[in-house]
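To the team - flavin-adenine dinucleotide complex, inputs and output below.
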Amino acid sequence: MKVLVIGAGIAGLAAAYHLKEAGIEATVLEGRDRIGGRVWTDRDFAGFPVEFGAELIHGRAPEVNTWRWVEKLGLKTWHWNKLDDSMIETEAGGWLTMGAARAQSPELDMTRSWKLGAVPLPRADEDLGAYLRRIGFSDAQMRYVQRSFANAEGDSLRYLNAKAHAHLFHDSDGADAYSDYRILDGYDSYYTQLAAGLDIRLNCAVTAIRWARGVKVETAGGAFAADAAIITLPLGVLQAGGIDFSPALPASKIEALRGLQMGPVMKMVYRFAEPILDPAIGAVYARGNPPMWWSPSLGRQGSAVVWTGFFTGDYARELLPLGEAAALRHGLETLRRAIGKPDLQYEDARWVNWVEDEFTRGGYSVCLPGHYDARERLAAPTPPLYWAGEASAPHHLTAMVHGAYFTGARAAAEIQASREDSA
Ligand SMILES: Cc1cc2nc3c(=O)[nH]c(=O)nc-3n(C[C@H](O)[C@H](O)[C@H](O)COP(=O)(O)OP(=O)(O)OC[C@H]3O[C@@H](n4cnc5c(N)ncnc54)[C@H](O)[C@@H]3O)c2cc1C
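Output:
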């Protein structure tokens, strides 16, 4: 049996890795001239690894599969505790460490711990903003959630399906929504090893997929044929409709694509001549735009000169129309005000525009209110096509590297099972 895997992001690499482990021949077709997709470690900008895409491991071992690779490869990691190593501009005004601000304000604390007490469950068609209002969140709490939680989720509250986030309110250990870790060696130390020994064809942007008997795929780098294919294309690429599926995708897939949205997720990365803050401070939560800033300084000496602004949803919708130069100026102004250095200048900066990237067309997926089943529909196999990629992960795993891996391993297992059934 031969399988084509479309896309060499984490989902595609995991799929090909698990197919290979099962003794199934797989070829990965990737449109870009590099692997990794939305995980993209740059080593030129600052002379040490800077993450232009995924930055952190969200969660702990053993639940989070990335840790199996971190341990296997002996990679160094750093835990971001977000209490004494992060500063927040409070809604009451003034700057505190996150730990002090949370201790002082139970209102803020609740938006970080998600310990909500006995509250009604979200309704099926409710957006997260409406739900939080219904259970009594104040204006200040809504702003905290928008600045931090919703910004990290990839879109504004009105686009987030409240029911899809309900796991948070029950699974929370009260410490923080997620326990976050940085791979100090760079995320690429992981994905290059995951890809080792796989058959990967770069510069093969797929333009057509014929899936009547077996699968025939047309790409910028030639045509390929196989018995089955695993589609790991980002949601934004599938929604843009630039790939000619023949026969057309079934109604269930079209319905799934309508129920999901690619959140606009952006980064601006600045390099300064010297550290702009005490290197023990790794993050700044500002009231401006971008609302979240972090530095790879924690646990890694010499990297406090780099600061990344992270902005999504309406923050991104505000800055994108400005264009690169004006948006970078706007970001610098926010940072200057936040740290009280009005004359701060940078040496170099990068505008990492995932929204206008033809191979992603957005940051990561959100499930729209009223479409709770969309992810499951997207994931359902339609042999000879099998489906993976972060948008097809269960709700609690979407928008994350380990969720993408989960979907790739899942699709590989589905193909393996189908082969055993037909044997
Ligand atoms: C700015 C940003 C920050 C993030 N931060 C984190 C984080 O800190 N932690 C975390 O866990 N997750 C984070 N994520 C999410 C994480 O990066 C993704 O969930 C995950 O990498 C998605 O993997 P994937 O394989 O599903 O998709 P992708 O990585 O997008 O892989 C799909 C592949 O398909 C290729 N492709 C697209 N079109 C074509 C075509 N026509 N033909 C052939 N190939 C094509 C793409 O080039 C790409 O390589 C972040 C994402 C972004 C954008």
